[in-house]
Specification:
about 250 residues, seven-stranded parallel β-sheet, 7 strands, about 40% helix, binds NADPH dihydro-nicotinamide-adenine-dinucleotide phosphate, binds 2-hydroxyethylsulfonic acid
């Protein structure tokens, strides 16, 4: 039986690249996100190696039902990739939008925690597993107008470190991937569909691709069992940290 990977946010960007990378590497992958039609469009061709499960990570009832009703052969999840997440808005904290704040906190922090709570007990029972949380360079230090998004990714760092401590007496490994600028749908979502603003984020620099991050996830998972890649900060060559970006 192939190992089983569950990817949240598999309809786009980093999650999509992770799902395809693990499928191509011979894993069975549970692909999840809110948009069922998009999941079907992207993954139907993988047949029985791929299970489509659509739910919102912010909806604890739906997430719990989705995980608890997994067919028996899909139940023993070996790798959880907590990727679903988003930034909404880029403005001073004192002008931020309450709804944007709530959505970022509910998705990036509480959604990731819900998935951890639902999947990791099985890993503990089997004394095997790997959790990959997608953090960000934004979690290392706040950048101008990033306030709440940066805070959610700082929380992901603490939550990941905490989990690593809590499973240190098991064979389970916990990895935090912290990408810098990755060209995905991320900025379109952040700017509520304003493509011109979104395109500017990646102008004058060769950004990372979603595939670059998927490659890092596969590397961490395929490292020998005694090797725990605890954290990786992955930046474009002309990005030095969250704020220093040298554009041509
Ligand atoms: P995309 O917007 O391309 O993809 C986001 C994915 O998350 C989509 O598949 C979306 O699917 C899913 N998603 C969003 N909200 C929910 C939800 N409530 N429930 C379930 N799925 C959800 O962005 P990226 O691929 O760039 O982002 C992926 C992760 O990487 C995020 O956590 C982001 O913070 C992080 N990151 C991104 C960086 C970048 O520069 N792009 C850099 C550092 C970190 P659907 O709409 O179908 O639900
Ligand atoms: C996404 C990277 O720098 O746009 O987390 O916040 S950044």
């Amino acid at each position: 039986m192939n190992k089983i990977v569950l990817v949240t946010g598999a309809t786009s960007g980093i999650g999509h690249a992770c799902a395809e990378t693990f499928l191509k590497a011979g894993y069975n992958v549970i692909v999840t996100a809110r948009r069922k039609d998009k999941l079907t469009e992207l993954y139907s061709r993988y047949g029985e190696n791929c299970l489509i499960l659509s739910f919102d990570v912010c909806d604890r009832v739906s997430a719990t039902e989705a995980i608890s009703t997994l067919p028996p052969v899909w139940k023993n999840i070996d790798v959880l990739i907590n990727n679903a997440g988003l930034a909404l808005g880029l403005e001073p904290e004192y002008e931020g939008d309450y709804t944007d704040w709530d959505t970022m906190i509910d998705t990036n922090i509480k959604g990731l925690l819900t998935m951890t709570r639902l999947v990791v007990p099985g890993m503990v029972e089997r004394n095997a597993g790997h959790i990959i949380n997608i953090g960000s360079v934004a979690g290392d230090a706040a950048y101008a107008n990033g306030n709440v998004y940066c805070a959610t990714k700082a929380a992901v760092k603490s939550i990941t470190d905490g989990l690593r401590i809590d499973v240190a007496d098991t064979e389970i490994r916990v990895t935090l991937l912290k990408p810098g600028l990755v060209e995905t749908n991320f900025s379109n979502v952040r700017f509520h569909g304003d493509c011109q603003k979104a395109d500017k984020v990646y102008q004058g620099i060769t950004p990372l691709s979603a595939q670059d991050i998927a490659d890092a996830a596969l590397y961490a998972v395929q490292a020998p069992p005694h090797v725990q890649i605890a954290e990786m900060l992955i930046l474009a060559t002309h990005q030095a940290n969250g704020t220093v970006i040298v554009r041509q």
